[in-house]
Amino acid sequence: MTSAKELQQLVNDYFADVAYERRPQSLYEPISYVLSLGGKRLRPVLMMLAYNMYCDHPEDILEQAIGLETYHNFTLLHDDLMDKASMRRGQPTVHQRWNDNQAILSGDNMLVMAYQHMARCPKEKLAAVIDLFTETALEIDEGQQLDIDFEQRNDVREEEYLEMIRLKTSVLLACALKIGAIMANAPEEDCDNLYRFGCQLGLAFQLQDDYLDVYGDPKVFGKAIGGDILDGKKTYMLINAFARADEAQRAELSRWMQTSDKPLEKIAAVTALYNIIGIDGLAQEKIAECFEQSLQYLQAVRLPDDCKQELLAYARQMMGRKS
């Protein structure tokens, strides 16, 4: 089997070498810039790993893998604009380097390009691939809107948050895996179990991101700790802290969440409350639960264990696990 590292390099090489022949250049320059910034390339790698469990030569579905990665980066480009973010992967965001209108237009073009790549598949696969990709894109927009709606609410429940991150994050991982399986002519039951595997893996991955934003090592995590606390984001951590706090703790938590002029003190105080309430352990338990559920779905895929080994190892790598 082809290793995940080799597949990642395949994707990186494509974006390093691609030349956009259409004009005007001003439309395509930001696209080239965004796609050259790197990243983990999780989604195309997952797609090709799923395909490679059934078929040799995962490069045969590079077009679809590139389509999914182009789409993912389109969502990031527009997210950065909506969030007014100034940096992405250590570099200025498109709307900062160019302007808001350029970010909107180049992002829109990336969405069209993603469909163009995705549609370059055998005609007997086209309907299934495009239908799944389209449903996924709709769900991601729904998740993004829920995330925006949650900013104005103080009564977000845990189950609502989990559904939001399923839509915003998990379904794209699930889509990657299922398209890889579809392209490989995998049995329908395997396609569905790989989709469920991706959904649960995505939940675990996002919940871990929430956790690491509070408890991670900045050198390993890749960004400053406490950003979600400073932004007042309705994460699994914050939602459960409010739900499980006593009256005095809830009042203190509310006071700190409304404080904006003492960032370091705010992060320290909210983290201390999380520790007292037991949110750190609760989050770790939920991450483990989702990850273990994902492994059960992968186990249900009707292939020998050695065929699944590279995908399993990659999932463990995503979660920072060695076993």
Could you describe the 3D structure shown?
- It is a single chain.
- The chain is mostly helical and 323 residues long.
- The radius of gyration is 20 Å and the shape is globular.
- The model has no long low-confidence stretch (mean pLDDT 94).
Layout of strands and helices, then pairs:
Layout: H1 4-17, H2 25-35, H3 42-52, H4 62-83, E1 87-88, E2 91-92, H5 94-97, H6 100-118, H7 123-150, H8 158-183, H9 188-215, H10 218-221, H11 227-231, H12 236-244, H13 247-257, H14 263-277, H15 279-300, H16 305-318
Antiparallel strand pairs: 1-2
Helix pairs in contact: 1-3, 2-6, 3-4, 3-8, 3-16, 4-6, 4-8, 7-8, 8-9, 9-15, 13-14
Shape: globular
The strand count comes to 2
Order of helices and strands: HHHHEEHHHHHHHHHHHH
Report the sheet with the most strands, covering strand number, pairing sense and barrel closure.
Answer: 2 strands, antiparallel
Tally of alpha and pi helices: 16
Report how far the terminal alpha carbons are from each other. Answer: 20 Å
Give the helix level as a range of percent.
Answer: over 70%
Radius of gyration: 20 Å
Q: Spatial order of the strands in the main sheet?
A: 1-2
Mean pLDDT: 94
Strand-residue proportion? under 5%
- Low-confidence runs: none
Structural class by secondary-structure content = mainly alpha
